[in-house]
Amino acid sequence: MNNKLKIVAAAALSVAALGAQAQAAFPGGKPITIMVPFAAGGPTDRVARDLAEALRKPLGGATVLVDNAAGAGGSIGANKVAKAPADGYMLLVHHIGMATMPTLVRNIPFKVESDFEYLGMINDVPMTLIGKPALTATSYKELTSWIGQNKGKINLGNAGVGSASHLCGLLFQNAIKTDMTPVPYKGTAPAMTDLIGGQIDLMCDQTTNTTSQIEGKKVKAFAVTTSKRLATPALKDLPTLQESGLKDFEVTIWHGLYAPKGTPADIQKKLNDALKVALKDPEFIKKQEGLGAVVVTDKRTDPAEHKKFVAAEIAKWSPIIKAAGVYAD
């Protein structure tokens, strides 16, 4: 081999070695960004910021930032991640919207099941069925009687098309076979304000948004949407909708972590390993419990099980959304 070829070969080996070293050293001092496809200050944003803090130590002290890109049922922010370089530096925290977007969003610019690497589930957030304080009903049984007497007159609030409260409301109406007038708002805060003020009648929303209002007796609480009663002091006496007669009714607003499709397998493993450590962080668990959320400890923290779970959720929600005929353009 002549000297020129030797120099070229040596340079190529050096570049390959540097590339391998950089990948092995991920994140190597470069900041990681978690994209939240909803506005800052909301439940998903709070989960992402708590997770960002908990991920720093298991990622070797890396800087983990949070960015927000809201709109179109959460698909705008998700699309930014789907189209981002597959190098592990742009991640996505998304909720149940990953399962509803394929049906809910017209002309969705990516494929949920094939354009992301699934890194593991984060938490489950229970839902509560609540009503305006002026309602005479004091139990779920009395509420169903009131609903029967006021068919066609009931306003059901939500935080916007595709929001957790919107989805829970759709499932509830489907379960009791009664249509109500949906009243969408631009976020949970204005919807809750109008519920407290009596401008709307009912809402089904996350414990992250309702626990303090229930505790302060600003709204009436009728049931939780989990299969078992909750241990949270303010909610422990609320029955489940299943025990109240709605067979198989269960809905939680879960969150998961994702990376762009094609992210190298070793980087995926580092991120999944870091996630599993973060989910056991006492401070992270405490913060999630404060939001009324339950940190995932089961097999869904594994990427394959996470993906399998989302596929099952897509199958669950698709017919409900199609029957309702709603879309988030």
Radius of gyration: 22 Å
What are the low-pLDDT stretches, counting only 5+ consecutive residues below 50?
A: 5-23
CATH class division of the largest domain: Alpha Beta
What would you say the CATH architecture of the largest domain is? 3-Layer(aba) Sandwich
How many separate domains? 2
Indicate the CATH topology of the largest domain. D-Maltodextrin-Binding Protein, domain 2
Count up the helices: 11
The helicity comes to 40-55%
- In terms of structural class, how would the helical and strand content be classed? alpha/beta
Per DSSP, what share of the residues sits in E-state strands of 2 or more residues? 15-25%
Considering the protein shown, what is the CATH homologous superfamily of the largest domain? Bordetella uptake gene, domain 1
Q: How do the helices and strands follow one another from N- to C-terminus?
A: HEHEHEHEEHEHEHEHEEHHEH
Mean pLDDT: 89
Biggest sheet strand order reads 2-1-3-10-4-11
Query: Could you give a short account of the major beta sheet?
Result: 6 strands, mixed
Q: What is the number of E strands?
A: 11
Give a short overview.
This protein is an alpha/beta fold. Helices cover 42% and strands 17% of the residues. The chain has 2 domains: 31-125 and 254-324, Bordetella uptake gene, domain 1 (D-Maltodextrin-Binding Protein, domain 2, 3-Layer(aba) Sandwich); 127-224, D-Maltodextrin-Binding Protein, domain 2.
